[in-house]
Amino acid sequence: MRTLIVNGTSHSFEAPEGMPLLWVLRDILKLRGTKFGCGIAQCGACTVHLDGQATRSCVLPVEAVEDARITTIEGLSPDGDHALQRAWIEHQVPQCGYCQSGQLMAAAALLKENPEPSDADIDASMTNICRCGTYPRIRAAIKSAGAQMKQG
Amino acid sequence: MATHPQAGVSRRALIGGVALGGVGLLLGLGPLRSQIAKLSGGQMPAFVPNAYVRLATDGTVTVVIGPSEMGQGIYTTLAAALADELDADWKQVTVEAASLDSRFGSYFFGGLQLTAASSSVLVFGEVMRSAGAAARSMLVQAAAQQWRLDPSALRTERGTVLGPDGRRASYGELAEAAARLPVPKPDGVKLKDPAEFKLMGRPIAKMENDRIVRGQLLYGIDFDHPGLLTAVVARAPVAGARLASFDAAEARKMAGVRGIYEIPAGIAVVADHYWLARQARDALTLRWDIPEAARLSSVRMTEHYRGLADRPGHVATRKGAPEAMLQGAGRALKADYQVPYLAHAPMEPLNCTIFEQDGGCDVWVGTQYQSKDGEVVSETLGLPLDKVRLHTLHMGGAFGRRGSPTEDVVLEAAQIAKAARGLRRPIKVMWAREEDIRGGFYRPMALSRIEAALGKDGLPSAWRHRIVSKSPMAKMPWSDLLIHNDVDETSVAGAGDLPYAIPRQLVELHSPTEGPTVQWMRSVGNSATCFAVESCIDELAHMAGQDPIDYRRRLLGKAEPRLLNVLNIVAERSAWGEGLGKGRGRGVALQSFWGTAVAQVAEVTVVDGRVRVDRVTAAVDCGRVLNPNIAAGQIEGGIIFGLSSALYGEITFDDQGQPIQSNFDSYPMVRMDACPRIDVHLVDSGEKPGGIGEVAVPHVGPAVCNAIFAAVGRRVRALPITTGGFSA
Prior knowledge:
With 152 residues, chain A is α+β, with helices and mostly antiparallel strands. Chain A is built from five helices and five strands; from the N terminus they run ββαβββαααα.
């Protein structure tokens, strides 16, 4: 039996050794907000927080994270009211939306560490792929949200 | 290729049902009501005036939409068009995807349910508006009867009918009474004047955004069902390979494996969930026979294409006789422009869920091509078409891949369902990214050989453009609509219909049949022709010693006012003509298609062969703009999509015929750090709605290459630029 703490809740389940956290989240815990895009940590659609750090869950074997606190998009805020989520709505960021869970999780980790990121900071941290091309709006939304969070 | 077949179909034919010879509005709703009740989870909507809208007594407005939502915002755009005419309360509007239903076919595709060609607003815009207006008039009529007033004394606002003396009734309250009224004749319904629009023309947010930012929007890949199993397929390494033998003994013993089946594409492993299916698939031993003809490398294909370009092809366009002038030419150019195969690579890998049950079959899939899905499921499982229940889910991108001529993803799922009938379980077939990138159905590779001669004024007096490109339309059921005299119109779009006043033109096409499967990808053949044409026009401008924008202005003349307008806008907004430093340059490209005129200017910096695209300025005239924010997003996104192709995109084949690329490490995409500043200028010319979803994709490639030439004097004639000695 394995145990994971996800979004503050403890879950116990069976999973084979080597099974990536992404598939545990999606297929065993039925948390489908975290997405599958490439399986080799290239695209970032699977980004979650592991003890607050943005991490790509598609290459993280479940046995390696059993003691960590995991946050998924579902746990980013109680009711979609994280400053980033509000900024994403205000700037009309999403198109198909599939990459956006990962984008938001990556952005949240960035802002936590660096509330006023420069363009170069954003370039360096936001490496997730968006095939629909929402990058300009993501950039603007991150800056907005950062400013909002700074104001408290 | 801007003509839309049957563009003259009147509203009369359209309001009752989109299919030709439109069925009348729904009356006598008996069996349909119970079907609707099922759909609505048992709550009987009171008022169903037509196929496009249902109104419940609690005021919920359900808009039924034919085209598929893939991020282009069509659900929001069309729902807003209907809701505006209805004067609904936008907060009460919800969308439902149409089922397999010929009333939702597109006249653009001869009645098929297919979302493509950036045509959804053109085809369905007025239909939705009329449907909303009809429903509104019936609600007004119902209130008028109750209040014993003339309908002209009443007005509507946000889901409410208002009387002159302050009386009000909500649409929910009036629904049942409205349902008893006769549906008005199509001609009897007046649409709003643009000055009255409340939702149309406004930048309303996409309806899905709230769910998206919470991770709550469910895509095909997220679909769940009690008892769901997952299937993965071990596929041929090369198209055309045959499975010689396989050994599944090890795989069968593995945890959670429910069945292993041979299907045309390879071996399907069905297991309790994806990871277990993958593990078991890895334990298979397969031997494939690869026939010689399948071992087709990119090198050989390019040689073959160059050979074809030496010979005359099927004529797409002829104006006068350029041949003579090309032979004796003074200033002249002969150049080959080449673009590679491309994979669509939508962020959500391909998938389809299928379950034979209840005397029929349910299919849950993100699809652009419902008609073909129904057909392949019906044929494969031996079911009548009306027993196939197709549920269109949201897609994590499509770009054309989810509307293939054979609907291969759904066909394969049906084949697996048939093989695994004994399991009696719903099965979700999932593709990995590698299977997607290597799985064929590519944007065709294309070689363009252009010969041009300049007249004394420096403008081209003769032009011959020979295109070699495999035809994506060959297998479509309506290929006779798009293939004429052996010319696939989509392969020559943007080449055979130049907006430039070149007096002698010959455009020819060769459509080789060898090579991987091909399919239309966002912007279709224009993605190739724009690169060739706009690069060549640029070369001619430089040869003539003229500014590339002035040159194009002269060539457009007075005949192309919309293109001239967008060209002038980007010239101004990009600060064309203002000095840039060493190693920096600007390039322009323009092209019209799907009824929309687009011009773009790219600005680049090149240092030691490394290209950085700093800025792209775009001007777009798509006629009436229904949602400016969604439209701008589609232009921004189209530019970035085109930029990935221009900078990095290529699918190439080794000498065993195997694709070299496999995932985002070998098939890279533009990410945040390579994304330029993008400025979009939408021109609302009030003309009939042109396309938006695809129209910005083709221009950035040639604009960037023209900018590179301006910056460092080196001409790129093959995409991606990274194959030409540049890095990005």
